[in-house]
Design brief:
Elements: H1 8-18, E1 22-23, H2 24-31, H3 38-51, E2 54-57, E3 60-63, E4 68-75, E5 81-84, E6 90-93, E7 106-113, E8 118-127, E9 132-140, E10 143-148, E11 157-160, E12 171-179, E13 193-200, H4 206-217, E14 233-234, E15 240-241
Parallel strand pairs: 6-8, 11-13
Antiparallel strand pairs: 1-3, 2-3, 4-5, 4-7, 5-6, 7-8, 9-10, 9-12, 10-11, 12-13, 14-15
Length: about 260
């Protein structure tokens, strides 16, 4: 009998949802472990205990509290991701361990020290980084879907359209609604992302599209899209007429601690 593969993230989600100490038999029932695989599963629980992810009180297992880190989720096109904080610390997230999250999201993760550095576990959304996505609208057997331009967003993206449906293949911009957590699809079992058609971009100038892509990727608020840039006016005496703009909010590339 081959050694089964167990999903550590799924186990942590089950125990976090239960919120109590559990017998190994209860954990296996909730996980759905078949009778023939219960012995290796018990061994796996002991390994997780040795890693410091679980603690044991008598015959009961419970989640062990771990140090937390808050940072921005940075997804690779190869399926894994990192969470980086503003203090130079980075934690690795394995493929399939950040379901319901998008590149650019602000998340909280529990961290443990792995073989090659810190590993992030049980990521929780703090704030959605992106509000809109750009891609090609396609008609499929399950309705309209989006083919995102960004390869880091390779997942099923469903699109709610109105009465006037753009042509198949149109370049569009959609508003992110939420993930459908009742369904899992694809290689890593990601839930489908639900979106709503916001606007059709076919025919837009290339330069304007590039600016829009950058703003959406960085989660820039839409009120900045067409924000005027105040320019100091020249005074009558030839000097510069200075205007106090310290109370005016502005966009900067500087980090929050600058």
């Amino acid at each position: 009998m081959s050694q089964p593969h167990y999903d550590r993230q799924r186990l942590l989600e089950i125990m976090r949802h239960e919120g109590r100490k559990m017998l190994a038999a209860d954990i296996m029932d909730r996980y759905g472990v078949p009778e023939g695989f219960r012995r290796p599963f018990r061994q796996w629980l002991k390994e997780l205990q040795g890693m410091g992810l679980l603690s044991k009180s008598g015959q009961h297992y419970l989640l062990r509290s771990r140090p937390q880190m808050r940072g921005k989720l940075q997804v690779s096109t190869r399926g894994f991701a990192f969470v980086d904080d503003n203090a130079g610390k980075s934690a690795f997230l394995a493929p399939g361990s950040f379901k319901g999250l998008l590149d650019g999201d602000l998340v909280d993760v529990a961290i443990v020290r792995g073989k090659k550095g810190f590993e992030g576990l049980d990521p929780q959304l703090v704030e959605r980084g992106r509000k809109k996505l750009i891609g090609r609208l396609r008609e499929s057997h399950r309705g309209y879907i989006l083919e995102p331009e960004d390869r880091r967003l390779e997942m099923l993206v469903t699109v709610e359209v109105g009465d006037e449906v753009p042509a198949d293949g149109s370049l569009v911009r959609v508003e992110i609604l939420d993930f459908d957590l009742n369904e899992s699809v694809g290689r890593y079992g990601n839930p489908p992302l639900r979106t709503r058609l916001h606007e059709v971009l076919s025919g837009w100038p290339r330069q304007q599209l590039e600016i829009l892509r950058i703003l959406d990727e960085q989660g820039v608020d839409e009120r900045w899209y067409d924000a005027p840039c105040p320019v100091p006016a020249q005074a009558e005496d030839g000097g510069i007429h200075r205007v106090d703009l310290t109370g005016l909010p502005f966009v900067t590339i500087d980090p929050p601690d600058a």
